[in-house]
Design goal:
- The complex is a heterodimer of chains A (813) and B (102).
- With 813 residues, chain A is mainly alpha-helical.
- Helices cover 69% and strands 2% of the residues of chain A.
- Chain A has a two-stranded antiparallel ribbon with strand order 1-2.
- In chain A, helix 7 runs antiparallel to helix 28 and helix 23 packs antiparallel against helix 24.
- The longest helix of chain A has 74 residues.
- The relative contact order of chain A is 0.08.
- Chain B is mainly alpha-helical and 102 residues long.
- In chain B, helix 2 packs antiparallel against helix 3.
- The chains are: A mainly alpha (813), B mainly alpha (102).
């Protein structure tokens, strides 16, 4: 606790203090592109690229400063414990390299200087960390076994009051901690690459400026989302992300399926957003009327919010995660969202839209942790949703013939891993998987876009095959990203997926999450198999797309994008002559240009090295030096009372150890999946055609082709079920209920009127009028007797009254 | 003026007042009724002067002077009315003047 005061004096640096500039720059870019974009023509994209380039550089700088900030906080904590002499010296050395895995230019050689330096800084590093453990200022029960120091890294916050209503202040602000800084980097990098890729991919599009404007707004919304300081801002940015995805998925809205897909994405997200709103409102009141995210989490961790409120809130928020992050059973919009341009799909799947749900859970983790008792031994809703999604999404990826839909279901499945990891308490593993997945999934999507750019189609079965010979560079980047996705050592996915599996096996106490270890392993097997199928259909075998010139108008299955690509090429004649050959050179596909390939190289490179940012140094890998291991966890995992690692919380978040058995088994399962798919597709082994022979297999295939009938359930049964019966019920109610009431009212009015006339009007009212007349007359007859006209009689009455009054006065007073 | 003297004046005043009330209520002659009203007013005057003397102020006496002035005016108007009644009816019997009988 007092470590926090010690770190309070650490200066975070200019970029961290002013990171709110980044979303503002992107928003300005949106406005500027819309305002002057039309006049600039195809140069309009430069506004967006300049803005996102600036944001990316800013993010890199912010990450460097964040690295210093974390270390300074740590040292400040050590010094306050009277133990900071020797650790200072080596920490300065290690400062220089740990940031480098983040920036793509230096990635390829980032590890070598690190390794070199490690050799001479190894001994003091290990010594310093271990020795510091017991001597740490707050070395209570949490600190003794681990080499972890109990120190806090204060998040950098800034807020301005937007408006005040009564005692409730509505603020806008910035909350920058490890995860936000990390997301800043990921979002701006992916967005930058997507911008560059898009300049070639959508060149000559009729809404070129509109496209880039919304890319900017999309980035702005996501960057603002990850830095949201309060739940209100979180919701606003969340919705803004949704709106941008709507605009970009429906970019080619002239085609009905595209605008339908956009609407579906938007409406499905509305379903979950109800959960988001309800959950946040519950939290607002449960936390004593505050929107402050840090405060809500801190209160939740301190046990100041009732468990019931936290449970209700987290269940509501899970609904939001299900819709936004494509979890079962609200995942159906995600594959349909492939109707948008491919770079947008990459952006949605890697960095912005779908990770918003994951990030929201990570951001409100204090709420989820305590609400769902993740640290305890209960199987909770979050983990179950994630586990279902891992298997369900992977199963659907097998029957898709559209390359982008395979990748979309793969994303669904991988997001399931992240949600599952959050559900079992492996927070760092989830965010680490988000980090690595962003790179290789963006690489896969952009790779598929590169292929589609060449053949003007996404249909692997009809128009692809044998692409390896035409597009070797795209093939190799795609293959590397696939290896990372499958989780082959030493690619990025291996490290992150393995950490999730280790978390599922070790966390929660008494192996209560072992079921999810099994689920995750099966998911790894399936991932390997469907990705091998995808690679086979796309890059190997015979090229099937030579005839695509004449069919381009007649493929009913996938009218989605090819017409546009073809049409755009023709349409863009005047705008870009260089693009012209695509329209006419229909002989054989050829490799894409540099603006498409360079982003692929970068992403493939990151898919190789990103995993090394969080090498474990426990279990079989305990020889990995401390200065190199678990950098991701060290930098980006929050340390403070708002996160369940703080010492005060019972059953705080712990980290799984590296388990060589799990790593070997999951790799073996991945290789087995590749081997099975290889045998089936490349060698033609196995019972091909079983779906037409065996009824059971056919039923299973049909079930998968129809996507578990979720779309039928939603549009046919739920929506249709509401439309028909409700209309009929309304009609019946109209005839029987409303008409009956109206007629009854009429008849009742006649009867009532008659009754009123006979009894009340004639009897009561007239009686009263006459009666008062008679009464007045009678009274007059009585009182006129007194009017004698004799003055003396009046005087006598006057005196008598005076005497009576006087008597009353005397008696009373 | 001591309390004993005050009581005697108040007693005189009460007797005059009672006599006046009797006259107003019982006599049929309008002139006598007017005279009886003068008795009532002068009973009040005695009271005022007596209390004024008792408290050692002149305000009671001044008030009495006002009452005398008002009484003079009242008698003037009253006698004029009586005179007009007499001219019309050749009588001042109040029992006969009963046009307000309801």
């Amino acid at each position: 606790m007092f470590a926090a005061e010690a770190t309070g004096g650490v200066d975070p640096g200019f970029l961290l203090e002013h990171a709110y500039i980044v979303p503002l720059v992107m928003a300005a870019s949106f406005a500027l592109t819309l305002a002057v974009g039309k006049r600039l023509g195809k140069n309009a994209s430069w506004i967006g690229i300049a803005a996102i380039g600036f944001s990316f550089l800013f993010a890199v700088g912010a990450n460097v400063q964040w690295y210093d900030y974390v270390n300074d906080s740590e040292h400040a904590a050590e010094e306050s414990g009277g133990h900071g002499e020797e650790t200072d010296s080596h920490a300065e050395e290690t400062d220089s390299h740990a940031e480098e895995p983040g920036s793509e230019e230096t990635d390829s050689h980032a590890e070598e200087p690190a390794a070199d330096e490690e050799e001479h800084s190894l001994a003091p590093a290990a010594e310093g960390e271990v020795a510091a453990g017991p001597l740490a200022p707050v070395a209570e029960e949490g600190g003794e076994g681990e080499a972890h120091l109990e120190y806090e890294v204060e998040p950098i916050t800034k807020s301005w009051t937007w408006w005040t209503n009564g005692t409730v202040e509505f603020e806008v602000g910035m909350l920058l901690d490890g995860m936000a800084v990390m997301m800043l980097f990921v979002v701006s990098l992916i967005s930058l690459l997507v911008h560059i890729f898009s300049t070639d991919y959508v060149a000559g599009d009729r809404r070129y400026t509109h496209y880039f404007a919304f890319l900017s707004l999309f980035s702005a919304a996501m960057l603002g989302f990850v830095m949201a300081q309060n739940t209100l801002q979180l919701i606003t940015m969340w919705e803004l992300v949704g709106v941008c995805s709507f605009a970009l998925i429906g970019h080619w809205w002239e085609e009905k399926p595209n605008s339908d897909a956009a609407l579906k994405a938007f409406l499905t997200n509305r379903v979950g957003d109800v959960g988001l709103l309800v959950g946040m409102i519950v939290l607002f009141f449960a936390a004593g009327q505050t929107f402050d995210i840090l405060e809500i989490n801190t209160l939740a961790n301190a046990g100041d919010i009732t468990h019931t409120a936290l449970l209700v809130a987290s269940l509501c928020l899970i609904a939001a995660v299900m819709s936004k992050s494509g979890q079962f059973i609200l995942h159906t919009w995600l594959p349909d969202a492939m109707a948008g341009p491919t770079p947008v799909s990459a952006l949605i799947h890697a960095a912005t839209m779908v990770v918003a749900g994951i990030f929201m859970v990570a951001r409100m983790y204090g709420v989820f942790w305590n609400g769902l008792v993740i640290g305890g031994s209960s199987v909770n809703a979050l983990a179950v949703v994630g586990g279902l999604t891992v298997i369900g999404g992977a199963g659907l990826a097998f029957v898709q013939s559209d390359i982008k839909k395979v990748l979309a279901y793969s994303t669904v499945s991988q997001l399931g891993y992240m949600v599952m990891a959050l559900g079992v308490g492996a927070w760092t593993a989830a965010l680490f998987h988000l980090f690595t997945h962003a790179f290789f999934k963006a690489g896969l999507f952009l790779g598929s876009g590169s292929v589609a750019h060449a053949v003007h189609s996404f249909d692997m079965k009809k128009d692809m095959g044998g692409m390896k010979q035409f597009m070797p560079k795209t093939f190799w980047t795609f293959a590397i990203c696939t290896a990372a996705l499958i989780g082959i050592f030493p690619f990025a996915g291996f490290w992150s997926k393995d950490e999730i599996l280790a978390g599922a096996s070790q966390l929660g106490g008494d192996g209560s999450y072992t079921a999810f270890l099994v689920v995750g392993s099966i998911g790894a097997l399936m991932t390997a198999a469907y990705m091998t199928r995808c690679i086979y259909l796309t890059f190997f075998g015979e090229f099937r797309g030579a005839h695509h010139g004449e069919v381009s108008g007649g493929t009913e299955d996938h009218p989605v994008e090819e017409d546009h690509l073809a049409a755009d090429s023709g349409h863009g004649d005047d705008l870009e002559a260089a693009h012209d050959p695509h329209a006419h050179d229909h002989g054989l596909p050829h490799e894409s240009g540099p603006r498409i390939l360079v982003p692929l190289y970068i992403l493939a490179g990151l898919a190789v090295v990103a995993g090394f940012t969080n090498i474990p140094n426990s279990g079989a890998l305990s020889w990995v030096p401390d200065g190199l291991a678990l950098r991701f966890e060290h930098l980006f995992e929050p340390k403070g009372a708002y996160f369940p690692t703080a010492g005060a919380i019972e059953g705080a978040l712990s980290h799984p150890e590296f388990d060589i058995a799990i790593a070997l088994v999951s790799t073996a399962l991945g290789l087995l999946g590749i081997g099975l798919a290889y045998a089936w597709y490349f060698k033609g082994l196995g019972p091909h055609g079983i779906t037409s022979r065996n009824r059971l297999a056919r039923a299973g295939h049909t079930f998968l082709v129809n996507k578990y009938y979720f779309d039928h359930l939603y549009t046919g049964i739920i929506a249709g079920g509401f439309k028909g019966p409700i209309a009929r019920a309304a009609n019946w109610f109209n005839n029987r209920g409303i008409d009956g009431v109206v007629n009854g009212v009429g008849r009742g009015a006649v009867v009532g009127g008659r009754f009123v006339y006979d009894k009340i009007d004639q009897g009561l009212v007239d009686g009263a009028v006459n009666g008062s007349g008679f009464a007045a007359e009678g009274g007059g007859q009585v009182f006129r007797q007194m009017q004698t006209g004799k003055v003396q009689q009046y005087g006598a009455i006057l005196f008598a009254a005076t005497v009576v009054l006087a008597g009353v006065f005397i008696v009373v007073l | 003026m001591d309390d004993l003297m005050l009581n005697q004046f108040l007693l005189l005043s009460a007797i005059l007042f009672s006599a006046g009330v009797y006259g107003v209520l019982a006599k049929r002659n309008a002139v006598i009724v007017l005279m009886s009203i003068e008795l009532i007013l002068n009973a009040v005057n005695i009271n005022l002067v007596a209390f004024g003397a008792h408290h050692g102020t002149v305000s009671g006496a001044v008030f009495a002077l006002f009452v005398i002035a008002v009484a003079a005016a009242e008698v003037g108007v009253g006698l004029a009315i009586v005179l007009l009644i007499y001219r019309n009816r050749k009588s001042v019997d109040l029992d006969e003047v009963a046009q307000m009988k309801g």
